[in-house]
Amino acid sequence: MITLLLLAITLGKVVELSKDEFNTLRDSGASMSVVFYAPWCGHCKNLKPEYAKAGAELDGVVDLYMVDCTNENNGGKDLCGEFSVQGFPTIKMINAEKDSVLDYNGAREAKALRSFVLYNMKKPFKDHKTPKVFLEATKAAKEDGKLHLFIVTESKAASSYLFKLAKKISDRMSIHVLLNSTADRIKELVDGGLEKHVSVGKLSLFTIKKNAMESFNGANTPREIEKWIDNSSK
């Protein structure tokens, strides 16, 4: 069982779970997207390639799982009863950010599934909802003496890359994100004293440690961003 769990954690693929494996992962607190299905179900067969595509797109971010509700030998049938599964496929997010169990009722397409998972999974960064809260976080960061990374992006939703980056560096620094940074929201940040660190129409990154602030001015590529972060954390 340990070998299978290690594979599930490292490969980012869609993995079928037994009841024991499911319970171990759930108890770890990790966010899990799970499809409860039956092998004979036509809708389940149609979902599989889309779910696998979503799993590939989320590789390195979160793993996707399936439970066979007809399997009595590995406890899958009991598990589906525990979650009151009445139709197939049933898709749930376990250990979501705001709910212990969250049902998915959207389109059975990779893009929609991916968006659902990214929006609802526990985030490895602080998702500040307003410029005011973001500005308050910058002020607090100057006082605690630790390293903080601040990211401002026009995207309305966090990208897979942002999740991967945050997971990779979260043990070295606190990460703060402001999404959906329209011109008005950027203006609020500029008026709040960040005129040297943010601008409209671009991804803005800067670090704070004590009173020192450093902005990223390199090419907007994963390699250059991570190189800058590595240098900032030394």
Automatic annotation (TrEMBL):
Residues in Thioredoxin domain copies? 1-122
- Name the UniProt record assigns to this protein: Protein disulfide isomerase PDI1
Give the GO terms filed under biological process for this record: response to endoplasmic reticulum stress
Name the PANTHER family for this protein: PROTEIN DISULFIDE-ISOMERASE A6
Q: Which GO terms describe its cellular component?
A: endoplasmic reticulum lumen
Keyword annotations for this protein, in alphabetical order, are: Isomerase, Signal
| Pfam families listed in its UniProt record | Thioredoxin
Q: Using the record, list the residue span of the signal peptide; answer none if the entry has no such feature.
A: 1-16
Q: Which GO terms describe its molecular function?
A: isomerase activity; protein-disulfide reductase activity
Query: InterPro entries given for it?
Result: Thioredoxin-like_sf, Thioredoxin_domain
Give the originating organism: Giardia duodenalis assemblage B
Does Signal show up as a keyword for this record?
A: yes
Q: Which domain of life is it from?
A: Eukaryota
